[in-house]
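retry 2 of 3: previous attempt timed out while embedding flavin-adenine dinucleotide. Reduced batch size to 1 and resubmitted. Inputs unchanged:
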Amino acid sequence: MTEAAYDVIVVGGGNAAFCAALSARERCERVLVLERAPEDEAGGNSRFTAGAMRVAYRGVEDLRKLMPDLTDDEIARTDFGTYTEDQFFDDLGRVTQYRCDPDLTEVLVKRSFETLLWMRSKGVRFVPIYGRQAFKVDGRFKFWGGLTVETWGGGPGLVDALTKGACNAGVEVWYSARALSLLNDDDGVHGVRVRRAGRTVDVRARSVVLAGGGFQANPEWRARYLGPGWDLAKVRGTRFNTGDVIRMALDIGASPAGNWSGCHAVGWERNAPEFGDLAVGDAFQKHSYPFGIMLNAEGRRFVDEGADFRNYTYAKYGRVILAQPGQFAWQVFDKKVLHLLRDEYRIKQVTKVSASTLEELVRKLDDVNAGAALEEIQRYNAAVRREVPFNPNVKDGRCTTGLAVNKSNWANTLDEPPFEAYAVTCGITFTFGGLRINTDAQVISTDGDPIAGLYAAGELVGGIFYFNYPGGSGLTNGAVFGRIAGASAARAACGA
Ligand SMILES: Cc1cc2nc3c(=O)[nH]c(=O)nc-3n(C[C@H](O)[C@H](O)[C@H](O)COP(=O)(O)OP(=O)(O)OC[C@H]3O[C@@H](n4cnc5c(N)ncnc54)[C@H](O)[C@@H]3O)c2cc1C
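retry 2 succeeded.
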């Protein structure tokens, strides 16, 4: 059965997809979004986020353009600093071990600010991330780690705003519509085969944008590409990103690209459900480990918790936790830093123990060798360079010396009750490998040429993130390339 033709079909219902649809709609009349999830679970991983978006800005004047609601009082009591294009570029280079595609990375960085302004024009609102990315020093908030803005209402707010903007602009959205394959011939891609309400239909279009997410919700693909043990990880976000959309492009000759054995994975509540829970959002994450230590089942520390700001380590430490016996760890803190723990430590659905002595604490750590854990904490305490002052806003150099695994910054002794510990396992966020695109977001074939009529953006694109990831880059990546993909697809479909 063949349905009426569209100018552009966008596959996916998250941030990248809606940015592509809104952008395509600027040139074309008939734009269709195919979202596999039912409406009440729609929005992909984007909906699960806190909405943090990494963006280059020269100073508070740039931020005022993004957030005209910033008050003089907020500006007076905040040091927003700057986050230059060079810093953003350097961060991406450093954390990906300089494997990130230089051309795509340059586009991501250089278009980040204008893309957020464009999103604003489509109805998305931004606010400063006071709660998570700024600490108060001498009465003033100071932002750190290059991450300063988030969308109003977090991920749900972002998806709502984009969906509303698209619907107001006349974009058609089909929910519970699973793209199955691409309609293609020697001239390129001409539409999508879709399963909707139990029926399979061929929907024809002049261009197709793929924005269907990674393969992290598919345990078989995780074990196949990420390696043994990854089938055991918990999925932080949507259950619908199973690699379908990557597969349908590979099936017609698209080139894979990037770090197929790599992913973004974090420390995540040990008893969290198999997939993300929209009622909890990202609050199962436990990101304050730089201020404490992590112990495994053998009672041992196994990673430098203070190697860098959490923005630059959290995305790779999930893998390290997965590699521990039993795939779990306990994060341990004492009274001195409890006030610094992020909001996510105070949710109901948390596996937490408290104690007034270290002896009592280690006995309460489920599945941990208590004697070894106590010795490890004592060894750690003795190794802390106490003469170096603690400062959570900078890499303070308060480290340990002489341990098999040293801690490089924020090494406080664990000696002031109450002590608290939180159990975490590995939560996978998204996969890094995906489709090869060029800077116009055209999908490239294994022969090295663009596939006519096919564009891609967001989590399912490979080549930008390797090994690790600077926090807040995923949404910006989806927005920048979603907007470009939508524009390229619309140019091909409806002319310049
Ligand atoms: C808990 C959590 C917190 C995060 N926090 C942040 C953050 O604060 N900042 C940040 O930058 N990044 C964050 N991320 C990463 C971020 O979510 C992703 O980088 C980004 O949302 C990817 O956007 P996307 O549009 O490419 O994919 P998604 O938003 O996942 O959208 C993919 C869409 O494709 C649909 N789909 C899948 N298969 C099909 C099919 N066959 N047919 C039709 N539709 C299909 C899905 O239903 C979904 O709607 C977080 C992720 C998680 C899980």
